[in-house]
Amino acid sequence: MRAIRFSIEKTLEGGARAGVVSTPHGSFATPAFCTVGTKGTVKAVTPKDLKELVGAEVALANTYHLFLQPGEDVVKEAGGLHSFMNCQGPLVTDSGGFQVFSLGAGFENGSNKFVGIPGFKQEGESVMPSFFDESVLSQHGKLAIIDDEGVSFTSHLDGSLHRFTPERSVEIQHALGADIFFAFDECTSPTADYAYQREAGERTHRWAERSLATHQNNLEARKKQGIFGVVQGGRYPDLRQWSAEVLGAMDFDGYGIGGSFSKADLGEALRSAINPLPSDKPRHLLGIGEPEDLFEGVAHGIDMFDCVQPTRLARSATIYTARGKMNLLREEYIRDFSLVDEETGGYVSEHFSKAYLAHLFRAKEMLGATLASLHNLYFIISLMKNIRQSILEDRFEAFREEFLARYTSRKV
RNA sequence: GCGUCGAUGGCGGAGUGGUCAAUCGCAACAGACUGUAAAUCUGUCGCCCUACGGGCUACGGAGGUUCGAAUCCUCCUCGGCGCA
Predict the structure, then answer these.
(1) DSSP string covering A3-63, please?
(2) Taking 80 as the threshold, does the pLDDT of residue A139 lie above it?
(3) Strand ranges of the sheet holding A161-164, from the earlier edge strand across to the other edge
(4) Is the CB of A182 less than 7 A from some atom of nucleic acid strand B?
(5) Which residues make Cβ contacts (< 8 Å) with residue A17, sequence separation at least 6?
(6) Is residue A176 within 8 Å of A76, Cβ to Cβ?
(7) Poorest-pLDDT segment among A127-136, A148-157, A331-340
(8) Does at least one atom of strand B sit less than 7 Å from the CB of A40?
């Protein structure tokens, strides 16, 4: 008996589908958006509000972060992640593979996932993230070093040396006890060349096998947790397809699609990665979450998303609205007493004005981040619900068009 | 009244003869953010222009010394402190 079950209620011609994922901690409707709680907390928001005000059904935490602090042993001693963070619903953990990228390969050129894409990263910007702390730099000039067996890395917290292998990552994720967790993968830099991308792909595939074997050998964990493999391939469609074929043949409970690709290529990247995957398993597009991208993902058959964007933007005063994103720190909102986003609604939009949130941010009051996070999460999650409904009613493309027409109607 | 210290850009506060339109912090204004080293980061921030360059006015006020002053001298105004 598998811990994770997926039932598809409806699939549209283009590939969009609606379903339900069942886990030992309850089920969630798909397409789903996982709120991101990297360190075991969705920043600035209580689990109660997340559930009652936002309507969130799943959350995702991170192996790398929880391993470093407080340590997976502490979480296990607390009774697992659910009990530790007082979350009764389904939980997902990411493997730490992305951190290998952001602390290692991605570090070399200070890139994010969309490096070089106009509007995402200007050319000639500083090579290193300026929040980088030189005191924890390893002798290699970066925090993570990859070899065929695994990854050695220095903690960004205290500079101590650690090592992740696929086996170790799975072991930690067993201790954390999320309902779904990811196989340890290597997320490459978007600038990686073909040869390296292929090499990294092969490594990721071997790691996937080892992760899967480690999980299958743990009979206790198998009953309680499901494991997802992660398709890689960078910006090369043939490598993505190859990666999906190789992983698709392995007996995972679901699949993550990770890595680097340009926004413009999202559609192509999804097509090549999704086609070879078994259609009866859930597919999770890792780390993507702008409204346009959610539509694009769903259109190609993605079932799950996670993204820091709603909460990260919220903390720096940018909110989603039906008419596009708005930076509440702009002067024009100081005396804008209209509600945050009447068209979208939700607890925050219905009770607070833009001027009030603008004041909270200017005054650096914590409630600003909380309300904005609640709102952005509500915005994204209700969007997912509406998308799901539109699939069930066979009017997904119409809804997409209608939503985006309004969403892009106003320049921020 | 005497003595003493001080007066710098929206605020705080550096500078104490040239490389100063003036370090820095805050505020302000704008931008970025997609598996969270992010309640973070970046840019602008006297005025004007044909604006990677140029011009003008500036460091309480008025004079002066000097090739050249926010920086030195004199007087004045205002403020802190001490003594009366």
Answers:
(1) S-EEEEEEE-TTS-EEEEEEETTEEEEESEEEEE-TTSS-TT--HHHIIIII----EEEEH
(2) no
(3) A144-146, A151-154, A161-164
(4) yes
(5) A8, A9, A10, A11, A30, A31, A301, A303, A391
(6) yes
(7) A127-136
(8) no
Work out the average pLDDT over A360-375: 97
Interface ipTM > 0.85: yes
For chain A residues 188-227, those near strand B by a CB cutoff of 7 A are none
Provide, rounded to the nearest whole percent, the portion of chain A with pLDDT above 90.
79
A78 Cβ neighbours under 8 A, 6+ residues apart: A84
Confidence of residue A211 (pLDDT cuts 50, 70, 90): very high
* Nucleic strand B within 7 A of Cβ A126: yes
A136 touches strand B (CB under 7 A): yes
For residue A10, the cross-strand partners are A18
Residue A101 pLDDT more than 80? Answer: no
Record the tokens describing residue A97, joined without a space: 């593979």
Could you tell me which of A113, A207, A222, A111 has the C-alpha nearest to residue A167?
Answer: A207
pLDDT-derived band of residue A263, with 50, 70 and 90 as boundaries? Answer: confident
Q: Which nucleotide is nearest to A185 (CA to C1')?
A: B35
Q: Give the Cα separation of A253 and A251 in Å (integer).
A: 7
pLDDT at position A105: 60
CA of A168 to C1' of B18 (A): 65
Q: Half-sphere exposure of residue A348, counting CA atoms within 13 Å on the CB side?
A: 29
Average pLDDT over residues A321-344: 96
The position carrying tokens 């086996």 is A167
The pLDDT of A126-146, averaged and rounded, is 50
Residues 68-107 of A, Cβ under 7 A from nucleic strand B: 94-95, 97-99, 101-103, 107
Q: Which residues of A125-139 are buried (b: 16+ CB within 10 A; e: fewer)?
A: eeeeeeebeeeebbe
| Whole-model pTM over 0.95 | no
Strand B interface, A 290-329, C-beta < 7 A: 290, 293, 306-309, 311-313, 315-318, 327, 329
